[in-house]
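Input sequence (73 aa), recorded before submission:
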Amino acid sequence: MINHLKIQMRNAFKIAIASTPLVISMYLLYWLGKHEIWLPETLHRDKITIAVLVAGMALSFFLQSYFAKRKQK
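Predicted structure, token format:
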């Protein structure tokens, strides 16, 4: 029973670690907008927003892939 709980907690921790880059990238965009650092008139704002989100998603994907590969071994 305790071993099963330990495995579930480890899996939840891995998911939390893997999703952290995406959450950080979304919070960065929120923070830039909240403190009016990024105004709608900022040049190439849309392109930079997409690049930040893609970077966060890619890092999350690679971390999740890394954990999945280690689980198979």
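Checked by second reader. The longest helix spans residues 2-34.
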